[in-house]
Design a protein that fits this description.
Layout lengths: L8 H5 L7 H30 L5 H52 L5 H25 L8 H28 L12 H23 L16 H17 L1 H9 L1 H23 L4 H24 L5 H9 L3 E2 L2 E2 L2 H29 L6 H21 L12 H29 L5 H29 L5 H28 L1 H8 L4
Antiparallel strand pairs: 1-2
Helix pairs in contact: 2-3, 2-4, 2-5, 2-6, 3-4, 3-6, 3-7, 3-9, 3-15, 4-8, 4-14, 4-15, 5-6, 5-12, 5-14, 8-9, 9-15, 10-13, 10-14, 10-15, 10-17, 11-12, 11-16, 12-14, 13-14, 13-16, 14-15
Length: 505
């Protein structure tokens, strides 16, 4: 049953202080959901290579397909939230599906891998875009505190990613809790963690959603109850019925290729259809949003090597010593970026506020450009590690971590800023769809990430470990160059893009 609003929207948006209290509730709900998601994400490629006997090229393609569908389905989830369920019910339903998927993976990940993944993909599509949209609705459109709020929310994302990203893969690899967890059950327990924390996430949301007032209720509240129930239950039934379809799509990467060629143009066509009802100024803002989406595709294609080729690089080519402390290299790869985000996200958000007081804050386009420059710097450091390798093809975990330190500032210049920009550039009645398209752009980034990683892996087949390291490192050098070019282009063309954005800074 839809929650009765107990706090009006105006009261919520006119909060005192730096952050609304509702943001903290959403912070913790998202934190646990991201623990589940990133814990599972960090295990995928290693699991496929070590437990499902896939070669590295196929594992990269499979990873790209899986992650692409995770983010592609968010567009559909956003659309359904806008038109039928509302943000709250969409989020709850998505959480339930993710719990089912995680439980399946915990029971028997080797037999039911694609079944569990498929439930998780569909569930994430309902959950992810809508909680971000709810965050945006806590603020007036021109509230200067909005980006600081998204930065804090993003810190919650990364706190979950930090814990889940390290704990799950370390348990699975036997470098953590090995005295407690039997070797035969390590992967089961690792996937089980994802199920437990997802339950905590959903309970956190359900127990605090009354504080959201009218935010996120069904858009069909004025529709007769019986008719609304039919729409809702049809949505639930169809989403479950799509699980077998998703199994086929994810397990056969050729279908992923076809899907990605279709879903993007359809999404753009739908947005063009919606644009006919908006003013010229609103449509210019949507064009600016699309430009940001296109550039974000390339950013995530490079960044998401973290779950693909960089996972294999960490497994094969990184030492386990970190300034005298033994750590799981893949755990570091999966979690170091999140640690740096937690430490620096709030400071970056406050820095934007400080610069804004003196009218020195760079606009959103320049921030995007800076994001690519930091990304390029980090990948150049990954390339540089090849000069530090020993004869066994193992290189410095410390330098590798430094690369992630630099990339983190690129992410903080782009991801929370991008989410905030999507909510500001889109008309009120299509915000969830635009947020869904933002995540759809991420889907294309994930898809391309898999192709890039597969290309690197293919080039390194039948090579020694030292030769593999060289091939991977040279691939990262190419990505650094592409990132540098993208950053320069964004900064050079920022005045033109800023004109399209109108009154949005």
């Amino acid at each position: 049953m839809e929650q009765v609003p107990v706090t009006d929207l105006e009261t919520i948006q006119n909060f005192k202080g730096r952050y609304p209290r509702q943001l903290w509730y959403l912070f913790f709900s998202e934190m646990w959901e991201r623990f589940s998601f990133y814990g599972m994400r960090g295990m995928l490629v290693v699991f496929m290579v070590s437990q499902l006997a896939m070669d590295e090229t196929q594992a990269n393609l499979q990873y790209g397909a899986t992650q692409a569908f995770v983010y592609a389905v968010t567009f559909i989830g956003g659309l359904i939230a806008d038109k039928i369920l509302g943000y709250r019910k969409s989020l709850f339903w998505g959480g339930l599906l993710m719990i089912v998927g995680s439980v399946i993976m915990a029971i028997d990940p080797r037999t039911f891998f694609f079944l569990g993944i498929s439930f998780t993909i569909i569930g994430t599509g309902f959950f992810k875009p809508n909680i971000s949209t709810i965050v945006g609705k806590l603020y007036h459109d021109n509230d200067a505190r909005r980006e600081a709020g998204f930065s804090l929310f993003y810190a919650g994302v990364n706190l979950g990613a930090l814990i889940g990203g390290y704990l799950c893969i370390a348990v699975a690899n036997g470098t953590m809790l090995s005295d407690i967890v039997p070797e035969a059950l390590r992967w089961n327990v690792a996937f089980g963690f994802a199920a437990v924390v997802m339950i905590i996430s959903l309970l956190t949301f359900t127990q605090t959603q009354k504080s959201l007032g009218s935010i996120g209720v069904s858009p069909l509240m004025t529709t007769p109850v019986a008719k609304r129930r039919i729409y809702e239950w049809l949505t639930y039934a169809i989403s479950v019925a799509l699980v077998p379809v998703m199994i086929i799509l994810v397990s056969q990467t050729a279908y992923t290729d076809a899907f990605m060629f279709i879903i993007g143009p359809l999404a753009i066509l739908y947005l063009l259809y919606e644009m006919r009802n908006f003013s010229a100024a609103e449509n210019k803002k949507l064009v600016a949003a699309l430009i940001f989406m296109v550039f974000s595709i390339f950013f995530w294609a490079f960044f998401e090597q973290s779950g693909g080729s960089l996972s294999l690089f960490a497994m094969n080519n990184l030492e386990s010593d970190f300034f005298g402390v033994t750590l799981d290299p893949n755990g570091v790869n999966n979690s170091s970026n999140s640690l740096f985000v937690i430490v620096f996200a709030t400071f970056v958000g406050l820095a934007w506020l400080y610069l804004g007081k003196y009218k020195l804050e760079p606009n959103t386009v320049v921030k995007f450009g800076l994001g690519f420059l930091f990304l390029a710097g980090g990948f150049y450091i990954f390339y540089y590690t090849k000069f530090l390798a020993n004869s066994a093809g193992l290189t410095s975990l410390e330098w590798f971590t430094l690369g992630w330190f630099v990339i983190t500032f690129g992410e903080l210049c782009l991801s929370p800023i991008g989410m905030s920009a999507m909510t500001r550039l889109s008309p009120q009645k299509t915000q969830a769809v635009v947020m869904g398209m933002w995540f759809l752009a991420s889907a294309y980034g994930q898809y391309i990430a898999g192709l890039l990683g597969a290309g690197i892996s293919e080039d390194s087949k039948n090579m020694s470990n030292l030769e593999k390291l060289t091939v991977y490192a040279d691939g990262y050098k190419d990505l650094a160059i592409y990132g540098l070019v993208a950053g320069i282009l964004l900064i050079l063309f920022s005045p033109l893009i800023k004109k399209l954005m109108g009154d949005v800074k």
